[in-house]
Design brief:
single chain; Heat Shock Protein 90; 5-stranded antiparallel beta sheet; 3 domains
């Protein structure tokens, strides 16, 4: 039977949600910072470009001969300058600057050109203009560094927050885990149940505690009612059985020899039936199904002798013994044989396995379809007795569970098979 899928975890769902929001928040903050800082970065770089240009223009002003301007090297990739005459001739330039003037006619102020951000200013009285320029790649790189730093910082804060929130959620869910642990070992109470689970550790658990304690109270009431019914049923059944036994005893003393022998056997069967009824009533009257259990070695042949006559050929494994409550096991076997007879079986074979802890029942009846057998097996495993289709399998499973085991339905080649696993002593 495939295992049922695990339900989603509250902590895991919250952790994923917080992680998703942290990532989205980090990207949103990074974008917002980039948009806000982009303008500021441009202004700062323009101010630096202006200051550089003014310094160089002051050095070049009033000099026709080559001025002592910083030329730099080819490795200076992001900054360049040109000193241009009024007629557009390039008088001097840095190694990075192009050989032709950035502007054919003198022009001052900031201008965006392909690949460059250029600032021009007058560098003398003869109309010379100094152009200082910075590559646009450098400016884009500065914007990217600002945006990347903002995104990484926001993501780092978000991830740290996610880790903190995850630990906090796990801590806040611990009262719920402790409540489930207390519930796992909680027996149906027999008396007051107001504080059976202890005080709620969180205000959200107050209605849960109230609902569970109300449920426990209703279960206790239901159990008490069923136990009272079982007590009345025991008295109602024992009285007629005792009357039958008394009548059989009188009839056996006054009947002819042949009939008297038969009446004695009937009386013996009635006495065994009284034991079975008493054992079953004790089983159902107990709160956990084990109070009436009296285990001891019982021979399989003796167990069959406890049963009333059936229109079945019952073959028991010779010499086999079981460690079980004989009366309860006889009641379970009684129901399984009755089921076999109603489903067309003519013979039933009984055997013992696993050192006297498993009673195997095999019949030659019509059997059931594999799908139905699987459904019944699932219902028995989950104790959904309403889906087993009758009292026989339910009672046999209850008897097996009272012994610490369970009833299983193995696949067999023909007929129907049932294994009463009785568990360890």
């Amino acid at each position: 039977m495939p295992a049922a899928p695990s339900p989603p975890s509250i902590a895991a769902r919250l952790a994923r949600a917080v992680l998703g929001w942290s990532m989205a928040w980090g990207l949103a903050v990074g974008l917002a910072v980039w948009l806000a800082a982009s303008h500021e970065v441009d202004e700062l770089l323009d101010e630096a470009l202006r200051a550089s240009g003014e310094l160089m223009a002051a050095l070049a002003a009033g000099h026709d001969e080559p001025a002592e301007l910083p030329v730099g090297t080819a490795e200076v990739e992001h900054f360049a300058w040109q000193l241009v005459a009024a007629d557009g001739r390039v008088l001097r330039r840095s190694m990075r600057a192009p050989a032709t003037a950035w502007h054919a006619a003198p022009r001052t102020g900031f201008v965006n050109l392909p690949g460059w951000r250029v600032y021009g200013l007058v560098a003398g009285r003869d109309g010379r203009v100094l152009y200082a320029a910075q590559t646009r790649a450098e400016r884009n790189e500065a914007r990217a560094e600002v945006a990347l730093g903002a995104v990484l910082a926001a993501l780092a804060v978000g991830l740290l927050g996610q880790l903190w929130l995850r630990a906090r959620v796990r801590h806040e869910l611990q009262p719920l885990q402790r409540l489930s642990q207390r519930l796992a070992g909680w027996q149906v109470p027999q008396g007051p149940v107001a504080l059976a689970l202890g005080p709620p550790e969180r205000s959200e658990l107050v209605p849960v505690h109230a609902a569970l304690e109300d449920l426990a109270a209703r279960l206790a009431t239901r159990l008490a009612s069923e136990q009272a019914f079982s007590a009345h049923a025991a008295h109602a059944l024992r009285t007629p059985l005792a009357g039958i036994d008394a009548q059989l005893a009188v009839a056996a003393r006054t009947a002819p020899p042949g009939l008297a022998e038969r009446l004695v056997r009937v009386r013996s069967a009635a006495a065994r039936l009284q034991h079975v009824v008493a054992a079953l009533l004790g089983l159902f009257r107990s709160a956990d199904g084990t109070a009436a259990l009296q285990r001891h070695p019982v021979g399989l042949d003796d167990l069959v002798q406890r049963l009333p006559p059936f229109a079945l050929a019952v073959q028991a494994e010779p010499g086999a013994t079981l460690d079980a409550d004989a009366d309860l096991l006889a009641a379970a076997l009684l129901n399984l044989l009755d089921n076999a007879q109603r489903h067309g079986a003519r013979a039933v074979r009984l055997a013992v396995a696993d050192g006297g802890r498993v009673l195997q029942v095999r019949d030659d009846g019509r059997g059931i379809a594999p799908e139905r057998r699987a459904e019944l097996a699932r219902a028995l495993a989950e104790e959904r007795y309403a889906d087993t289709g009758g009292l026989g399998l339910m009672l046999a499973d209850r008897v097996a569970r009272a012994h610490g085991g369970r009833l299983t339905l193995p696949a067999v080649d023909a007929g129907f098979g049932a294994d009463l696993e009785l568990g360890p002593r």
